[in-house]
Amino acid sequence: MNQQELQALRTMIVVHKRWDMIFGLIGILALMIALMTFTALFADMAINGVGRISWEFLTSFPSRRAADAGILSAWVGSVLVMLVTAFAAVPLGVAAGVYLEEYARKNWVTDIIEINVSNLAGVPSIIYGLLALGLFVYTFGLGQSILTAGLTLALLILPVVIVATREAIRSIPQIIREGAYACGATTWQVVSDHIVPYSSAGILTGVIIGMARAIGETAPIITVGALTFIAFLPPAPFTGEPPAGLFDWLFAPFTVMPIQMFNWTSRPEAAFLANAAAAGFILVLMTLAMNGLAIWLRYRLRKNINW
Amino acid sequence: MTEKTMPETQLPLKAEARNLSFFYGNFQALKNVNMPIYDKRVTSLIGPSGCGKSTYLRCFNRMHDLYPGNRYEGAIDFHPDHTDLLSSKVDPIEVRMRISMVFQKPNPFPKSIYENVAYGLRVRGESARSVIDDKVEAALRSAALWGEVKDRLNEQGANLSGGQQQRLCIARSLATDPELMLFDEPTSALDPIATASIEELITELKEKVAILIVTHNMQQAARISDYTAYMYIGEMVEFGETDQVFIKPNKKETEDYITGRFG
Amino acid sequence: MNSTVITAENIVLMQQVSDRLKKDFSRHLKERVIEAILFLAAFLSVFTTTAIVYILLKESWIFFQHVPLTDFLFDTQWTPLFDDAHYGIMVLLSGTITSSMVALLVAIPLGTIIAIYLSEFAPFSVREIAKPFLELLGGIPTIIYGYFALLFVTPLLQKIFPELPGFNLLSAGLVMGVMIIPYVASLSEDAMRAVPMALREGSYATGATRLQTSLRVVVPAATSGIAAAYILGISRAVGETMILAVAAGMQPNLTFNPAEPGATITSFIVQVALGDLPHGSIGYQTIFAAGLSLMLLTLVFNLIGFYMRKKYREAY
């Protein structure tokens, strides 16, 4: 190649590389748009809401007067609903994940289950609300209760837990299974002694992400009929109307954090909007903390396990 | 390497490695390699796996620049303009535009046969259909593939057989008129018949272009190359005419490797 | 011959064997029971889907006995709660389509650019920070995004377009777009990273730049995965509820103008659920008919997405 051709080549490369640089800038800009939206959202909520957050705000029931209103019934409701969700979704999700990875044979039944799990992950959450309304509320007669809401959210996050379980199990090398089978273990012994313990951190990550999603879900809970104005707490065990039982609270009417926030957001008075911002700020902090924990766990997991 | 064993030193040089060292992070993979590459000749690199022959080959088109933590020392002097291929002032893209490469496993792009061959031209901004048509046909003819694919140029490259895919990749790297072609064990994933056709092709290609080929197959090196270099643990143990290296190696280590006493 | 001789020793031996067999049998039974339980847990997903379809069809069936399908599909008014009730799903569909279009116009270009940037351009450290950050962004409850659209984005837009109403599909759609970016970016990036390094090396070896390699080799090779990411984004947009319920107003409005307020299929369901509709009333059944339309819409997208993901997993 002579000098002239070489010069032409170099000029062309400079032009080509300029496009590389321009795209690099566009990429950073696109990331920045996402970052700035997040910052604006967080700051907006903090500026408008932090002033309202106080002990009284956390320990008061909603009220007609914005200044007296609090989120007691909302956060208690959220905690109880999450409890039901976790108790239902974790065993079911882990069991389903274990079945699909360790037991399922490659046949059409397995295919159908897999298609269903994948499809359910994409079903809009409000559809789960309609399912719960038709099934739990009116067919099973569970009413518009904490139990109904908890089970609805459990169905909603089940695909998340299943997928996380499967991924965690898949990362366990085959030699571990072979080692255990070689000692004469049955499938269940391999699963309960090795597979589940070794994948527990990965499963936990998925569960936390699922719970973080569930705690912010609004639409399906509205659909099953959560009330927006609740000035009492569900009955503690053995304190409700006789014959009082351990689980009376499961069937109590309730509200949750996002619904309380939605209620305040749809009021025209500015004072209620401040309440909405305060509730929203707490909700964002909660989901960020949960997701952050999950990300950190996964990061630790990646660093610590080396097989 | 005396004057007597190398009567062809008058041949034009295409490139010359001088004190070339290469580091993956802190690990030194090449140690002070010196070696000439003659124009319009096939030079093969042999040696046990892990000896650094592929690492050496990939210095010539700065492939190592794609990954962080890699470092070159020394120089590769590229003739006739005496560009130092390894200089940080020389853009790796410029190097790759002049020196093309064929990989171990055929790696056709998920595009049509035609677009695979035209890729290098398009990357250079060529858009005239007639120019591209001509160059694609010429490259496919040179790669001995034209007869087999001329009626199915719009089919996916991946639909071809393994040997055809590798010839497609050769056509792709020929289409841009490279000055030096690098082959990284191009037949290791192919069956014997496909291997034979690639070897024949390489011997034809040296009429036009300098060729540097890594092979783990000593018979292949003996069959197709004019010069052979034996490498061991990052060092160039011996370089010479292929006949000399195989029949009368200067170094004991080379002889051990070639006669199978190695290891 | 001695095999027929029953000695005390032999009896003990036979006893042991039969013990082991018994143990094997109970062990086997336990294994089968456990497997059956685990299978039921996995099969719950099939049950859930069936239940969704059954509930939606059952209630919609009653609905369609009152409302002819042609009215449902072709009526241009949606006033199910009025005395003069009209049930034209088109009205809600227009809100869903308009807001989704706005969202996708934000999410698809930005999500794709971010994916290409993170997969092919960004240094390792940037990617390590950006990916978890995007994940956090995707984990924020949608009610929060709704608040943000109504009380931050809309006032901001009103400074530029003073005639923009307080409730509008535009700001809801824009915020929804930002919400969907992480889904599109993360799935597209996964697809691009699944493209074998050998293809990139082949491209770089011809002298291609990063951008040329990304756009001419990596993106085409990852097409089906990227398409699956887009489809997930579409199905998120179509099914999104709270952002629209909060920020777009809930007045049914047959319009494709994002600067107007409007109701979507989802926000209508929320609106009805917030009120006190007696079980079994026609209003109650309306939300199931609306839900069925939504389900059919997303089902189509989800199935396309499922097969595309499957296809790109098989490709390498």
From TrEMBL, chain A:
<comment type="similarity">
    <text>Belongs to the binding-protein-dependent transport system permease family. CysTW subfamily.</text>
</comment>
<dbReference type="GO" id="GO:0005315">
    <property type="term" value="F:phosphate transmembrane transporter activity"/>
</dbReference>
<keyword id="KW-0813">Transport</keyword>
<dbReference type="InterPro" id="IPR005672">
    <property type="entry name" value="Phosphate_PstA"/>
</dbReference>
<feature type="transmembrane region" description="Helical">
    <location>
        <begin position="270"/>
        <end position="297"/>
    </location>
</feature>
<feature type="domain" description="ABC transmembrane type-1">
    <location>
        <begin position="75"/>
        <end position="294"/>
    </location>
</feature>
<feature type="transmembrane region" description="Helical">
    <location>
        <begin position="120"/>
        <end position="140"/>
    </location>
</feature>
<keyword id="KW-0472">Membrane</keyword>
<feature type="transmembrane region" description="Helical">
    <location>
        <begin position="72"/>
        <end position="100"/>
    </location>
</feature>
<dbReference type="GO" id="GO:0005886">
    <property type="term" value="C:plasma membrane"/>
</dbReference>
<feature type="transmembrane region" description="Helical">
    <location>
        <begin position="221"/>
        <end position="239"/>
    </location>
</feature>
<keyword id="KW-1133">Transmembrane helix</keyword>
<dbReference type="Pfam" id="PF00528">
    <property type="entry name" value="BPD_transp_1"/>
</dbReference>
<keyword id="KW-1003">Cell membrane</keyword>
<protein>
    <recommendedName>
        <fullName>Phosphate transport system permease protein PstA</fullName>
    </recommendedName>
</protein>
<feature type="transmembrane region" description="Helical">
    <location>
        <begin position="146"/>
        <end position="165"/>
    </location>
</feature>
<keyword id="KW-0812">Transmembrane</keyword>
<dbReference type="InterPro" id="IPR000515">
    <property type="entry name" value="MetI-like"/>
</dbReference>
<dbReference type="InterPro" id="IPR035906">
    <property type="entry name" value="MetI-like_sf"/>
</dbReference>
<feature type="transmembrane region" description="Helical">
    <location>
        <begin position="21"/>
        <end position="43"/>
    </location>
</feature>
<dbReference type="GO" id="GO:0035435">
    <property type="term" value="P:phosphate ion transmembrane transport"/>
</dbReference>
